[in-house]
Design brief:
Helix content is 36%, strand content 25%. The chain is built from 16 helices and 22 strands. A hairpin with a 6-residue loop joins strand 6 and strand 7.
C-alpha cells in the first residue's frame, strides 16, 4: 500500500487510520520514518510526527520511494493547479482544520492538470547550451527493493528515454565516432592480423578447408562497441515509445522524428556488444556526449532487465527514484532565455560560480545586467520569501559578479526572481519583454519578480 501526493501538497495520517490488527506495530514503524533530502536545497519528502497523527509533505521533487521500513511507499506526481493561487491559499492557510482545506482542494480539483515535465526536458535538450548542463537531475536507488506500479504511472522510464534520444540525436548530428575494433573472419587464401588457432582447427582443419584461415584483425570505422551499444539501446527506446504512445501524448510525433533521424546512421552497425568491451572503453574527452549516452543507456537497459519484451508490459517494477524539479526548472528558464535571445546568448551565464556561490543565471549584456534566481516555488504568486531575496541580493554584491558585469560605479545591480505562474505567466523571455513585464517587490529596492508559464499535459 502506498500514499499518493502531488507537488507542494501534504497528507495527514491519523494513528487510527493505520492497520487495526497491528496498530502499535504500525505506529512504531511510522515513528522511525525521517524526512529525506535530495540535496542541500530541497527534500524528497518531509515527514513530521504530531500528537495523534503523522504529516507527510511533498517538497520540490517528484518520484517514487519506500517510506523507510514501514512497508508503505510514497508516489509524488508532477501536478500543479492552473488556479495556483487558490491551491496555494488552501494548502498554506494553517489556521484552517484539515477537513476544510480538503474541501477547498476538492472544489478546485477540476483545475488540477499534470505538469508536462517531459516537454520541459525536450525544451532543455533541444538547446545545446542547456543540454550540456544536464547532470544530477535524477537519483535512482538500484539496490533498493523495486516497487510495482502501472506502466502509465512510470515517470522514470519516459524521462530516461527522452533524455537518451536527445543525446543520440546530438551525436548523430555531429557524426558518429570512428575507432579501431576487432573483426573475426574466415579468410580465403590469405592471413590478416593473427590466426585464432582454436577456431581455425574447428572451422577449417576438421572440415578439410585447407585454403581458409580463421583470423582476427583490427579495422578502423564506425562499427565499434560504443556505437553498437547506442544502437541496441535505441532499439529498446523505440520499442518502448511505440508500445506506450499514450505516455508521450503529442510528443510522440516529435520523438518518432528523432528516432527516424537517428536510425539511418546506425544502419550498417551491429547491435551485438558484450559487457567486457563496454567495461574497457576509454572515453575520449573530445566526445563528451558518448560518455553521458552510454551511462544513460546502461540505466535504460537495467530498467528493462536487458529484455526488450519488458517494454510491452502494462505493469512494471521500478527502482525508487527522485527527479529534481527545481533544477529542471532552472534549466528550462535558462534554455528559454537562450532561445529568446540568440544574438546575446553569450551574455547569459548559467551557474556562474564565485567563492563557493553559484548563481542560477547571470546576464552581462550592457543595459540589461541582472542577477536571476529561478525559484520553483508558488509563494511568489501572492508574496515573497525574505530568505530568497537576501540570497539573490547577496549574489549581486559579490565583487566577482560586479567585475563580470563591468559595473564600476557605486550602483545596485537589478535582481530578478523567476517563478512558475500557470495563469498569468509569460512565454517570451527576451530581454526587452523581461524589462517590461517584471514587477518590483515593493519592500526592496531593485528586486523584481517574474512568473513564467510551464507546459501542461
Amino acid at each position: 500500500m502506498g500514499f499518493r501526493l502531488s507537488e507542494h501538497n501534504s497528507i495527514e495520517i491519523l494513528f487510527n487510520e493505520l492497520s487495526t490488527d497491528s496498530l502499535n506495530e504500525d505506529v512504531l514503524l511510522f515513528d522511525t520514518i525521517k524526512s529525506k533530502r535530495f540535496n542541500d536545497s530541497s527534500h524528497c519528502y518531509i515527514f513530521e510526527k504530531k500528537e495523534i497523527s503523522f504529516e507527510l509533505k511533498a517538497d520540490y521533487c517528484i518520484g517514487l520511494d519506500w517510506l523507510e521500513n514501514s512497508g508503505r511507499y510514497l508516489y509524488i506526481e508532477p501536478k500543479l493547479n492552473t488556479k495556483s493561487s487558490q491551491l496555494f491559499d488552501a494548502i498554506t492557510n494553517s489556521e484552517e482544520v484539515i477537513s476544510e482545506v480538503d474541501e477547498k482542494l476538492i472544489n478546485i480539483s477540476s483545475e488540477i492538470r499534470e505538469l508536462d515535465y517531459l516537454k520541459m526536458l525536450l525544451q532543455i535538450t533541444n538547446v545545446p547550451e542547456s543540454n550540456s548542463e544536464i547532470k544530477d537531475l535524477v537519483k535512482i536507488y538500484w539496490n533498493a527493493k523495486p516497487i510495482e506500479i502501472e506502466q502509465k504511472e512510470d515517470k522514470l522510464t519516459p524521462f530516461l528515454v527522452v533524455q537518451y534520444l536527445q543525446l543520440v540525436k546530438t551525436i548523430v548530428r555531429k557524426g558518429l565516432k570512428k575507432n579501431y575494433y576487432k573483426v573475426q573472419e574466415n579468410l580465403n587464401n590469405r592471413v590478416k592480423g593473427k590466426i585464432l588457432v582454436g577456431q581455425h582447427i574447428k572451422q577449417n582443419v576438421f572440415k578439410n578447408r585447407f585454403t581458409k584461415t580463421f583470423c582476427e584483425y583490427q579495422q578502423f570505422g564506425e562499427d565499434h562497441a560504443e556505437n553498437r551499444f547506442l544502437k541496441k539501446v535505441l532499439q529498446f527506446a523505440s520499442s518502448y515509445i511505440e508500445n506506450h504512445k499514450d505516455l508521450f501524448g503529442n510528443k510522440y510525433v516529435e520523438l518518432q522524428h528523432t528516432i527516424n533521424y537517428c536510425r539511418p546512421a546506425f544502419e550498417l552497425i551491429s547491435n551485438h556488444v558484450n559487457d567486457y568491451e563496454l567495461k574497457h572503453i576509454k572515453h575520449n574527452p573530445f566526445y563528451k556526449d558518448y560518455a553521458t549516452s552510454i551511462d544513460l543507456g546502461k540505466k535504460i537497459l537495467k530498467r528493462f532487465a536487458y529484455n526488450i519484451t519488458q517494454t510491452t508490459k502494462n505493469k512494471v517494477t521500478t527502482p525508487p527514484f527522485w527527479i529534481d524539479m527545481p533544477r529542471l526548472f532552472e534549466l528550462y528558464v535558462f534554455s528559454k532565455m537562450i532561445e529568446a535571445n540568440p544574438a546575446d546568448k553569450k551574455t547569459i551565464h548559467y551557474q556562474f560560480s564565485t567563492y563557493g556561490n553559484a548563481l542560477d543565471i547571470l546576464v552581462s549584456k550592457e543595459g540589461s545586467q541582472m542577477v536571476i534566481d529561478a525559484k520553483y516555488k508558488l509563494h511568489y504568486l501572492k508574496g515573497h520569501l525574505h530568505e530568497d531575496i537576501r540570497q539573490v541580493a547577496g549574489y549581486a554584491r559579490l565583487n566577482k559578479v560586479r567585475e563580470k558585469l563591468k559595473v564600476t560605479d557605486d550602483i545596485n545591480i537589478d535582481c530578478l526572481i523567476i517563478y512558475p505562474d500557470m495563469e498569468n505567466g509569460i512565454d517570451d523571455l527576451t530581454f526587452s519583454n523581461i524589462k517590461e513585464i517584471k514587477r518590483e517587490i515593493v519592500a526592496y529596492y531593485k528586486v523584481y519578480k517574474l512568473g513564467i508559464k510551464l507546459p501542461l499535459i
